Structures are given as C-alpha cells and as structure tokens.
Amino acid sequence: xxxxxxxxxxxxxxxxxxxxxxxxxxxxxxxxxxxxxxxxxxxxxxxxxxxxxxxxxxxxxxxxxxxxxxxxxxxxxxxxxxxxxxxxxxxxxxxxxxxxxxxxxxxxxxxxxxxxxxxxxxxxxxxxxxxxxxxxxxxxxxxxxxxxxxxxxxxxxxxxxxxxxxxxxxxxxxxxxxxxxxxxxxxxxxxxxxxxxxxxxxxxxxxxxxxxxxxxxxxxxxxxxxxxxxxxxxxxxxxxxxxxxxxxxxxxxxxxxxxxxxxxxxxxxxxxxxxxxxxxxxxxxxxxxxxxxxxxxxxxxxxxx
Length: 305
Hints:
By secondary structure, the protein is an all-alpha fold. It has helices at residues 2-21, 27-39, 41-52, 57-83, 88-97, 103-114, 119-148, 157-165, 168-181, 188-198, 201-212, 222-247, 251-261, 268-275, 280-304. α6 runs antiparallel to α7 (119-148) and α7 (119-148) runs parallel beside α14.
C-alpha cells in the first residue's frame, strides 16, 4: 500500500510537469492552483484531521523537539557557510533553506495520505508545521533573507505575525485544536465533507509542484544548490533522528517529526528571496531540486521511522 502511494506521488508530480511542458499548466495556472489549495482543501484537511485526533502531552514534546531541531539546523548551517567562506547571501540561503521544511504545502498532505488511519500522527505533523515552520519562515527566515538581500524593508516581528495570521491554514489549525481539546463535535455531514475535500489536497499539491518545476532555475549554481539540498534532505533528517533517539517521543510523534524534517525546503523561501533580492535564482533552484531529492529519499526515512 505504501509503495502505491509513493508511486502515486511520483506520477502526479510527473503529470504536473508534463502538463507544464505541454503548455496546459502555465505559471499563472500553477499559482492559481496553489492559492486554491491554501484556501480550501488544505484547511479542510487540517480541521478534519485534528477533529479526529486526541490531545496529548506528546504534541507539546513534538513541538519542542521540532523547534530545537530547526534552531540547531540553522546554527549548523550558518557555521558551515562560514567554514566554506560562502558569500553572505548564499550563507543566508543555506541557513534558511537548509533548515526549514515544506511541512505545510507538501509534508502534512503527504503524511495524511500515507497514514490516513492515524489522525494523531497527522496532528503531530500539523504541530510541526503551524508551531515551528510557519513561525520560523515568516519571522526568523524572512528577517535573515531581508538582512542579507539587496532589497530591505521587512519590518519587525509583528509584521511576520500579521503575515501568519492572514493564512487560512492558521485559522484552520486553531479551529482544529479547539475541536481536539474541547468536548465539541462537528456535525457528521460537515465532517464528511471536510474529509473528502481534504483528500483532494495531495493530488492538487503534487500537480501544482510539478507545474512549478523549471530546470532552468538550477543554472550555473549547481554546486551551491547541491550543498543546500544535501543539507536539507540528509543533514536535517539525521539531526532529527539523533534528537528523537535522545528524547523518546511516542512512535506516532517521532514518525511525523522525522518525515517533516525530511521534506524539501519551504517554498515560500523562494518568494522571500525574490522579494528581498537574495539570490532568487539560486533559491528557486533549491526548491526544485530539493523537491525531487526529498521524494526520492522518502522511502528511506519511512523505513527508518
């Protein structure tokens, strides 16, 4: 069954890429699809998954371990960039893109599809995404890229929080956690509808990402791309694995954290890199390459977890 899902992921990604090459999925179409996913299917997936999960202290532990792993990863990436004497902008990209995963747009839907009968595992994946990734990329990551980019004007941390509060998935997570903690139940027809809508998330996400793959973005910076992608898809999961061996979280939380840490670099990092002119071509190349490598390595991390 797992192999069927992995083949499905690959085939949908290739279909999206084929539609893009055939001129069916243009850049504006892919952007529209991404917007659609973030507005409806992904929030529905989060609410329906959390509504079926049980609250436990393991979720707090998962949040702490995930946050620690990202901070440690950023620190190690920064030190590595200094040791290799990378340009400040490249070092900033290594620090941000090498440490922060695409846990929301890709990680949570994939995990929900792979473990659809384990809502607690999906809840741990959402905790990583909303409690760690969203905070780190919109506040810390954006500030780093703005500081070293040619274009300034990020503002303070409050601006990052406002960006976060504008995301539909943020409010979906709040609703989902309220349903998990409080003695509340969604009406069965509504829960059924949310579940079915949420199930469309993974196919739409993979088609969208396939439509966004442009190999030209790899360009002449392949060595820098390989360095950042290698750090993201190998060093970060290994770091997470070491932390999990130390803390002893429940199996469902440990599997969710390991898989989320193995996801490709967060896509919005390329948006911030373009906005702040922090080597946007390199940032886009990392997003493309890390997506392919991450999906290829996914069976490895699933086997370990």
